[in-house]
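Workshop exercise sheet. Pairs work together: one partner reads the sequence aloud, the other fills in the structure field after running the prediction. Swap roles for the next sheet.
Pair: D.N. / O.F.
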Amino acid sequence: DNNATLLNSPSSKTHLINQLVSLVKARNADGVNIDFEGVGVEQRDSLTKFMNQLGTRFHTEIPGSMVSIALPSVQWTEVFMVAQMTSVDDFLIMGYGYYYAGSEKAGPNAPLKASSWTYWGSTLNVTSSVNWYLNKGVPASKLFLGLPYYGRRWATATGTVPSATQNKVTPAISRTYAVSKAEMSANNYIRQWNAEGDTPYYVYQENGQWFQTFYDDAQSLGLKYDLVNQKNLAGIGIWALGYDNTAKNPELNNMLREKFPPMVLSARDEWQEVKPSLYPNPVQRGQMVFTGAPIKDGDIILKDGLGRSYASPTSHTDGSFSTKSLPAGLFFLTVSNSKSITTFRLVIIE
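Structure field:
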């Protein structure tokens, strides 16, 4: 209803665009992402016009800015007319929620591939969603795949997969990766693998009630990252960064770095052509930190929060370095070359 109220009002749409342009200018941001969920088919044409108006205004008033839109994994009724959104720069598939809180059966949040009809069939999966939008005319270079750092737990009739949910007995709840991993470890739950969807899950009983939790981990996400690379998509999105508790559980970040390695520049002086970064931050002591560009050992100055100098960490060709030799605490890392100087605030935790 709220979407209809907005999209049916030319003055409201103009007001929203004005507000967004002003906000992005004020914050010196890169652009805007639109996530309108539950748009009725009656507003299809209005939505398309709104996105094109939005893109035109942003490109005119903020040169180089980007306008993107979040897309449902499955369009039961085609509302997001992606081929007609000619002023939109990027399209992001929300590649999760194939099984949701109200599902009649428990299953994976983001199955990779088609399955037998005993499960979810040929269309309710990440691969099908990607192919659908590509076939609708979105160039691979503009298509991103959003993937989950969370899963979901259902009360189920049995411990077998698939099983009917019992949401009236116990409502389904979401489970972040960090929570799922901790829950399995604390209770000695066994990680199992659903070959139909290439996703992990675990099953347990509590006071006679069966529960099934499906989630994604480094292995299942890595397979979906392979799909992104095979299709030459623009990249990925994550819902949501931090759901893994990166400092304690670095494996998801490590898989990102494995499948999408940092760009190695051809010359050290090209540092200023990429946006410097420091990730993960905070970092658990002993883990690797990435700067996103190659740096020379002599160009690193490291001091702690009290101004005390430390020996410069040895960096690798991609600009990464280990925190193994450093104590936990607050540090300031200054990286320089002939053209620029960048200082990072780095927090190392035990």
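Discussion prompt: The first strand starts at residue 31 and ends at 34. What would you look at next?
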